[in-house]
């Protein structure tokens, strides 16, 4: 096979090489033709250069001739100018001579006109010839450059092909050497495989004989000893207790615990979202503290106030589902009865969402119709209304799949076992859709909050409420993302765990059979526990000796211990006396502190009354003359101070006295600003307290669950330690039994060897006796 493959490869390579050689020859011919064309073009270029030089010489001669004619024309014009004045003087005498000069002038003019026309014609011919020569020269030069580039490209192609041919030849030679080595190794491996196949055939024959013997034996045992095969019928097989898979149960409980934590976070976020939405309705677009809100928003607020009665049961249903999954149960869809209650709670929450959805949409429309709503805010409200519809639809889809998963534990005919995996995958898709919808809601609500914060009429109460709603939406988004990723990570395990059930069957037939199986499992576990007799704990001998020594030493030092107890009692009585003394001192100090505080308060009251007297004197001084004003200033030479919530008011004689009305306005403005600040702080503190209360409640529940899990783990550790001790005891007993069996087998083998040796001796004696008899018969 390897040689045939090598020959095929070589044939292919030879064909390619022949093709490449033919292409190389064609390319060489093309290069030679192009070189010949370039040489012919060079000769044509030389001929054109020669013709150009001739034309240039003719041009030079013509220019020289033109110069001569121009000089002659100038001379004739000079002569004509000189002859004109002479002709005027001798008009009468020179009429004949003038006629002669006119004839000569006309002849000269005709000759000059002919020369000028000839010169113009020659100029035109020269210009046309020069332009044609330049055009031809440019074409030839461009063609020559193109041919040179083509020749260079062809030469590069030829060089590349030769290089490629050399590389392919070297590569083929290397491949040939490698294939030869590979063929040798393959031949060796083929020989080894033949030997292995022969050995495997022998082993297969032996195993077939052994298994056929075992099969006959097991069939005979089954036919003789088994009166009834309960695995033959699925109805009876569903009642059999499957093998206990502790790892599977612990994994399912761990997954359920993680799901419970995620659901608790989601429930907290939903509660905050509905609660803060209710607060926002009371504030925007109409503040309920200033004016009455619309009947629609009142109804919507009333419904939102009932959100806890629909959201809290989700956490309780998940908690019951988590508590139903224990180490002793068998967790499949047919046995998870508590999933039905969780589905019912989810259905009630879906009904709540359907009930509040139209009110929510109408509330957003009312916000859009208000005068404070801008076009950008209206667009965000429309996007939020679409997101709320999508959120309700996603919850309905999720509730449909959860209800389908709850059917096997209540109505086995409602969902076929073949559809379990598709329903589980669809649950994951619905969770991812919920996460995407929450991301859109978070994005659009953050944009809406930023637009509302930029409005001039936005109050601090609305800003804090928007921030709280945005934080709850972000918590919802994070919770949905965690649940979706957690479910997608464990969906393969859920699908694989569907096969967990009775042996040789497709699964549990009905919830009733699953319940009966769990009861049988509990009875079997109780029976096995009753059979297990734990060993009484005994004190080791060395520890008992050490305890006896300690006891003896303690009896010897009893008197010393009694003295120490007496001294400690005396010290305790002294410390109690000192405690009473210092308690009395503390009470006296407290009384002194109260008196000092009372004295300071009285002093502050007196200073405030002094300030009021000073203010009345200032008013009187403003109405009196300047002298009376100086007397009032001398009567109160020191500044008067007043401490209160608005700060310290100080008045001196040098500063100007403000009016009573301006002072009252300042105090009023300061108190109003203080009231606004305190109300905002109070609202923020209320929202934080609600959030902290929810977090503390969730943490307390988590702590209780953690303590329960800790107790369960301690119990499991105790059971595991007991199982370890039991297994160690069983191991020792099995070792002893195996040792006893081995000793018995060795004794049996020894006895068999002895019997065999005796039988051999008897056979030898019989042979000797038979030989002796045969000799006697021969002698006879």
What descriptive keywords fit this protein?
flat; endosome; PPP1R21_six_helix; 15 helices; 1% strand; RNA-binding; PPP1R21; 780 residues; 2 strands
Q: What does this entry show, briefly?
A:
Helices cover 84% and strands 1% of the residues.
Description:
The protein has helices at 2-89, 95-225, 234-237, 246-283, 295-304, 308-324, 338-369, 375-406, 420-453, 460-496, 511-531, 541-556, 558-623, 626-635, 660-779, and strands spanning 640-644, 647-651. By secondary structure, it is an all-alpha fold. It has a two-stranded antiparallel sheet with strand order 1-2. Helix 13 runs antiparallel to helix 14. The longest helix is centred in the N-terminal third of the chain and has 131 residues, at 95-225. Mean pLDDT is 77; it is low at 618-658.
Question: Strands, helices and their partners?
Answer:
Elements: H1 2-89, H2 95-225, H3 234-237, H4 246-283, H5 295-304, H6 308-324, H7 338-369, H8 375-406, H9 420-453, H10 460-496, H11 511-531, H12 541-556, H13 558-623, H14 626-635, E1 640-644, E2 647-651, H15 660-779
Antiparallel strand pairs: 1-2
Helix pairs in contact: 1-2, 4-5, 4-6, 4-10, 4-15, 5-7, 6-7, 7-8, 8-9, 9-10, 10-15, 13-14
**Strands across the major sheet, in which order?**
1-2
Largest sheet: 2 strands, antiparallel
How large is the count of helical segments?
Answer: 15
Got a strand count?
2
Describe the global form. Answer: flat
SSE topology string: HHHHHHHHHHHHHHEEH
**Uncertain regions spanning at least 5 consecutive residues:** 618-658
Helix percentage: over 70%
Q: Which percent band covers the strand fraction?
A: under 5%
**What separation lies between the terminal Cα atoms?**
78 Å
Q: Report Rg.
A: 59 Å
The mean pLDDT is 77
Structural class: mainly alpha
InterPro entries: PPP1R21, PPP1R21_C, PPP1R21_N, PPP1R21_six_helix
Keywords: Coiled coil, Endosome, RNA-binding
Subcellular location: Early endosome
Protein name: Protein phosphatase 1 regulatory subunit 21
């Amino acid at each position: 096979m390897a040689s045939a493959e090598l020959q095929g490869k070589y044939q292919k390579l030879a064909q390619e090489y022949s093709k490449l050689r033919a292409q190389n020859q064609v390319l060489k011919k093309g290069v030679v033709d192009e070189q010949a064309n370039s040489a012919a073009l060079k000769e044509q270029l030389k001929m054109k250069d020669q013709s150009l030089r001739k034309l240039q010489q003719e041009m030079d001669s013509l220019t020289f001739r033109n110069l001569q004619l121009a000089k002659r024309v100038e001379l004739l014009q000079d002569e004509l100018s000189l002859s004109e004045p002479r002709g005027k003087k001798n008009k009468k005498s020179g009429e004949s001579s003038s006629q002669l000069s006119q004839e000569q002038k006309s002849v000269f003019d005709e000759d000059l006109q002919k020369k000028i026309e000839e010169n113009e014609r020659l100029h035109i011919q020269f210009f046309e010839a020069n332009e044609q020569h330049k055009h031809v020269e440019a074409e030839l030069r461009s063609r020559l450059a193109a041919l040179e580039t083509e020749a260079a490209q062809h030469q590069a192609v030829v060089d590349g092909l030769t290089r490629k041919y050399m590389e392919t030849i070297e590569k083929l030679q290397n491949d040939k050497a490698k294939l030869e080595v590979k063929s040798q190794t393959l031949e060796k491996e083929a020989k080894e495989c033949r030997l292995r196949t022969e050995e495997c055939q022998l082993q297969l024959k032996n195993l077939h004989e052994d298994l056929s013997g075992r099969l006959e034996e097991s069939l005979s045992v089954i036919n003789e000893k088994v009166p009834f095969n309960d695995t033959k019928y699925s109805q009876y097989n569903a009642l059999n207790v499957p093998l206990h898979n502790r790892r599977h149960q612990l994994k399912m409980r761990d997954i359920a615990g993680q799901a419970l934590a995620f659901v608790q976070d989601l429930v907290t976020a939903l509660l905050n979202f509905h609660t803060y939405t209710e607060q926002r309705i009371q504030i925007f677009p109409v503040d309920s503290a200033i004016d009455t809100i619309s009947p629609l928003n009142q109804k919507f607020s009333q419904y939102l106030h009932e959100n806890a009665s629909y959201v809290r049961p989700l956490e309780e249903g998940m908690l019951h589902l988590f508590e139903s999954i224990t180490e002793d149960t068998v967790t499949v869809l047919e046995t998870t009865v508590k999933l039905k209650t969780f589905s019912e709670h989810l259905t009630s929450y879906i009904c709540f969402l359907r009930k509040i959805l139209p009110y929510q949409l109408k509330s957003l429309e009312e916000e859009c119709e208000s005068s404070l709503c801008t076009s950008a805010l209206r667009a965000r409200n429309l996007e939020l209304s679409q997101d709320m519809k999508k959120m309700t639809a996603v919850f309905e889809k999720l509730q449909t799949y959860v209800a389908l998963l709850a059917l096997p534990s209540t109505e086995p005919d409602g969902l076929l076992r073949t559809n379990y995996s598709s329903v589980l995958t669809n649950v994951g898709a619905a969770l991812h859709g919920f996460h995407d919808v929450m991301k859109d809601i978070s994005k659009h609500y953050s944009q809406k909050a930023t637009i509302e914060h930029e409005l001039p009429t936005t109050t601090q109460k609305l800003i804090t409420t928007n921030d709280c709603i945005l934080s709850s939406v972000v918590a919802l988004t994070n919770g949905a993302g965690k649940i979706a990723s957690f479910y997608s990570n464990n969906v393969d395990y859920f699908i694989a765990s569907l096969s967990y059930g009775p042996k040789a069957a497709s699964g549990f037939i009905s919830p009733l059979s699953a319940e009966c199986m769990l009861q049988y499992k509990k009875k079997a576990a109780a029976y096995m526990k009753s059979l297990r007799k734990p060993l009484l704990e005994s004190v080791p001998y060395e520890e008992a000796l050490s305890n006896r020594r300690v006891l003896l030493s303690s009896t010897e030092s009893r008197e010393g211990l009694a003295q120490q107890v007496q001294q400690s009692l005396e010290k305790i009585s002294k410390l109690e006396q000192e405690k009473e003394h210092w308690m009395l001192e503390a009470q006296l100090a407290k009384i002194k502190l109260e008196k000092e505080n009372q004295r300071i308060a009285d002093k502050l009251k007196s200073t405030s009354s002094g300030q009021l007297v000073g203010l009345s004197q200032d008013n009187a001084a403003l109405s009196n003359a300047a002298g009376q004003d100086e007397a009032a200033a001398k009567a109160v030479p020191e500044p008067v101070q007043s401490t209160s919530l608005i700060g310290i008011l100080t008045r001196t004689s040098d500063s100007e006295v403000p009016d009573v009305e301006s002072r009252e306005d300042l105090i009023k403005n300061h108190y109003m600003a203080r009231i606004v600040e305190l109300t905002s702080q109070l609202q923020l503190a209320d929202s934080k307290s609600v959030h902290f209360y929810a977090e503390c409640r969730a943490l307390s529940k988590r702590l209780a669950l953690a303590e329960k899990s800790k107790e369960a783990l301690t119990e499991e550790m105790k059971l595991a330690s007991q199982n370890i001790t039991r297994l160690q005891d069983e191991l020792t007993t099995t070792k002893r039994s195996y040792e006893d069996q081995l000793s018995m087998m060795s004794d049996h083998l020894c006895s068999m060897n002895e019997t065999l040796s005796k039988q051999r001796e008897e056979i030898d004696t019989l042979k000797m006796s038979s030989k002796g008899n045969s000799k006697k018969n021969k002698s006879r």
